[in-house]
Design goal:
The protein has about 290 residues and is of the alpha/beta class. The protein contains eleven helices and ten strands. Helix 6 crosses helix 7. It binds S-adenosylmethionine.
Length: about 290
């Protein structure tokens, strides 16, 4: 596998044998870049998650191109075909329904497969809901964690919720409107009602809405509402003071359990499980 590609001196026109991952708008079609339009119009073909969405862009900007479908259901079959086309000298653009391909959308697998074949990939950047929400939230943005959609399985989900509750970095989540209330209740349970949060709904669209400022207020705002539209959630990290407060509570619990007759090892094991820590982390508090 060749990891060194000379990607300088690129031309504006799509080049033979190159795969372009093209970012498209997350709502407002005017957010597409001139470069993205140029690649979509002039690539040998455009592989899209949903041809209807891509046609909307082409219709608005008055051009057309050959479209093929490329999504999570057919990617196993389509990737070898795309590799063959690229090796024969075609230029191919990949677009998802909205935003950046590869971010909770098809794109990641093909990028990995192509890299291992030594084929060049160029990303034409565009809108991304996670970054748009983060920047408009006003929450710390220099260090953040993107978790995408939380897993559905309870045990996996709670593991990540626990990590979020203890993380000092801002976390960004995607969620469907149907499941927002459930997620907010879980965040209340794991992070507490005072944790700062912003729910961004319908970013870049006509009815864009930012709902903050802490979990209690957000739950209150959405109570008994029919929630529709697309949702991204930004959660402020725990601050060091609260984290230390957490540690001093655990330390006190540890001492209480030892006073009540438990061994240090048993008490640490119990509190580690309860607080989602490693046994050694609790043990070392003493
Ligand atoms: N690739 C996309 C990106 O770059 O943001 C994300 C695709 S993911 C399948 C779709 C999820 O992104 C939605 O369920 C929602 O959580 C979030 N999202 C997409 N558009 C949004 C918008 N306009 N406002 C808020 N969230 C949005």
């Amino acid at each position: 596998m060749n990891n060194i590609s000379l990607l300088s001196h690129r031309k504006e026109e799509p080049e033979k044998g190159i795969l372009y991952l093209v970012g498209t708008p997350i709502g407002n079609l005017n957010d597409i870049s001139q470069r993205a339009l140029n690649i979509l119009q002039n690539a040998s073909l455009v592989a899209c998650e949903d041809t209807r969405q891509t046609k909307k862009i082409m219709n608005k900007f008055n051009f057309s191109n050959k479209l093929i479908s490329f999504n999570k259901h057919n990617s196993l079959i389509k990737i070898p075909q795309i590799i063959k086309d690229l090796k024969e000298g075609k230029s191919i653009a990949i677009v998802s329904d909205a935003g950046m391909p590869g971010i909770c959308d098809p794109g990641e697998d093909i990028a990995r497969s192509l890299k291992s074949e030594g084929i060049d990939i160029i990303c034409v950047p565009g809108a991304c809901a996670a970054i748009t929400a983060l920047v408009s939230s006003g929450l710390p943005s220099s260090k953040f964690v993107f978790e995408g959609f939380l897993p559905k399985k309870k045990i996996d989900r709670e593991k990540i919720l626990l990590e979020i509750s203890k993380n000092e970095k801002t976390t960004i989540l995607y969620e469907s409107p149907k499941r927002l209330s459930k997620l907010l209740k879980e965040l209340l349970e794991f992070c507490g009602g005072d944790r700062e949060i912003m729910v961004a709904r319908e970013l870049t669209k006509k009815f864009e809405e930012h709902v903050g400022n802490n979990i209690n207020n957000v739950i209150e705002f959405f109570r008994d509402k029919d929630i529709i539209g697309e949702i991204t959630i930004v959660i402020k990290g725990i601050n060091k003071k609260d984290l230390n407060l957490n540690k001093s509570i655990i330390k006190k619990d540890l001492n209480d359990l030892i006073d009540a007759g438990l061994s240090l090892s048993a008490a640490s094991k119990y509190l580690a499980k309860k607080n989602g820590l490693k046994k050694s982390e609790v043990y070392n508090l003493i």
